[in-house]
Amino acid sequence: MKLSEIPNISSVLKSIQKPGRYIGGEYNRIMKDKDSVKCRFAFCFPDTYEIGMSNLGVRILYDVINKDKDVWCERVYAPWTDMKEKMEEYSIPLAAVESGDELSEFDLVAFSLQYELCYTTALQMLRLAGIPIWAKDRDEDTPIIIGGGPCVYNSEPIAEFFDLINIGEGEEVLLEICHLYIKMKEEGTYTRSAFLRAAAGIEGVYIPSLYDVSYNDDGTIKEYKPLYDDVPRKIKKRIIADLDTVSYPEKLVMPYIETVHDRIVLEIYRGCIRGCRFCQAGMVYRPIREKSPEVLNATAKCLYDNTGYDEISLISLSISDYSRIGELTDSLLSWTDDEHISLSLPSLRIDSFSEELMKKVSSVRTGGITFAPEAGTQRLRDVINKNVTEEDLMRSVAIAFRGGKSNVKLYFMDGLPTETLEDIKGIAELATRVVGQYFKLPKDQRPRGVGVTISVACFVPKPFTPFQWEKQDSYETLIEKQEYLKSCITDKRVRYTYHDAKVSFLEAVFARGDRRLAPAIATAVEEGAMFDAWEEYFDYDKWMEIFARHGIDTGFYTTRGFGLDEVLPWDIIDCGVTKKYLLRERERAYNEKTTPSCAEHCNGCGADKLGGKNRWCRACDQNGGADNE
User: Which of 203-212, 360-369, 544-553 shows the lowest per-residue confidence on average (mean pLDDT)?
Assistant: First the structure.
């Protein structure tokens, strides 16, 4: 039954929060004749409508897929708990926003997995659609279930729930999957198994059911073995070579309710020239590829004309590392000022922040700015290869204070490899010195009042980083460090916030886990787990009880350091960056040696073998760069 077909739909919508999440009909949504298209594609975001509507990746892929006349891509979001109860009460299956058709009527159903704690929400969405959560339980009439997004760089904990996993960027590969589906349907050769076997030949496609995983007596992985000779032993991620030519939305679906990021978002480039050793995104999104200022400016004008938004946010992993940032901001300001459109740059690095850049963005009119030193001492910043100094930070906060910023937020991590209590104490001391920098300025050069917030996350060792082999601090140790830092803060102008160590612990279990976690995840879903990423629904004790019930030692994935010669759960994936490079960076970390950015020197990470035009790291072109295995 569709939402519109419920006899008392009006009373149902009046009884829930934010009915605008479910009614559809938004301006700029894409509607097609479902009887004339050859493939129906459902793009699912395992969180609420207002979060999913803000996701740039979903916006891009929705636009790309719908530009193909033979495919209709529709959006699906997770219902909030109040609506979920109504759906279960009235037996309403989960449906797409555009057509209102239930998910089971689609050919391909894809999930964007942005965060490990969204796994249960994705599987609950399948349950609400009446689709079996285990891939092995689906029959010929069930849609093909696809997973993608940053989490699938270690797909193994959820591999047996997905028929097909897209590794890397999706603009090209998702259409290739759709075209293969159409081709096999038209030829009459389609069966579920035949399609998956054929899809395994598409670069960037991982079919978990086509691999056998064996384990050693100590519980580590022995081998990933393809079931057939023509199935690749490693799955090479897909990238878009030239971002200037790839499709980008010219119109945005305009929501009826406020969303998290209700603005124009311009993707400036992909990749990162830095090599922070804790950062997965900085490794897996390589190589660096930039868009030209001309393309970005034209895109911004087009989106403004089609939406009327009064804010443009420029995004990348480090916006101030864009090689033509001055040229871009000048071209945008040539017309945005006249239209009263504000510009925001949300990802500025301490060492590349400048007064000139600050003056160009209208966010100077707001009261706060954020920097990420990540560690409280220079020694530990060198270990993690942050490549910023205290002098860089003091210079940047002085610029911010002179520019009218009265509040500074500083991001740090605790639990980093080689960390000591002196490093923890250094966080408090650094925050105090930032307050002192405010008072060093003449009164006429600083805003009234000052506040410094330090936000501290718990380190999670992530796949495809130089720290992927490291152990995570135990929950008890993380709590001790959090309490110690609290005791070190004596300045009332310094505010301290920190992440829940229990959440970080579970995140590490999923980030570093293997297929043996799947039964526990399935049990959690069967027992109602959903929205684990939301504080009010996260139940650490319940998860620990389920893991114990399944005989899973969570410390095997968290507080145990992985062996340097061990087969890792994600070794079946080739993200472009070689293990040889990661090991070399790990050794440099323990020697407290930094590595220069790609802009200064090619460090031979291996990502150049993936290709890609317009790379910032031109040194790779000059000296070959690759240090491939």
Answer: 360-369
What is the extent of the structural domain holding 608? 575-623
pLDDT at position 361, please? 65
Domain final position from 193, 218, 236: 236
Report the alpha-carbon angle 508-466-568, nearest 5. 60
Domain annotation covers residue 31: yes
| pLDDT tens per residue across span 288-322 | 999 999 999 999 999 999 998 999 999 999 888 89
Give the Cα separation of 46 and 94 in Å (integer).
Answer: 12
CATH of the domain at 192: 3.40.50.280
Opening angle at CA 509, ends 506 and 512, nearest 5: 145
Query: Scanning the structure block, which residue is given the tokens 């409508």?
Result: 49
196 located within any domain: yes
162-166, 356-360, 547-551, range with the lowest pLDDT: 356-360
Does residue 518 fall inside a structural domain? no
The Cβ of residue 202 has, within 10 Å, a number of other Cβ atoms equal to 18
Q: Is residue 367 part of a domain?
A: no
Residue 617 has pLDDT above 60, yes or no: no
CA distance 45 to 51: 9
Total domains, the chain: 2
pLDDT of residue 493: 96
Angle at 489 between CA 484 and CA 490, to 5 degrees: 135
Query: Residue 457 and residue 413: Cα distance in Å, rounded?
Result: 5
Q: Which of 177, 212, 236 is the last residue of a domain?
A: 236
- CA separation for the pair 459, 471 (Å, rounded): 10
Which structure tokens are listed for 174?
Answer: 């998702």
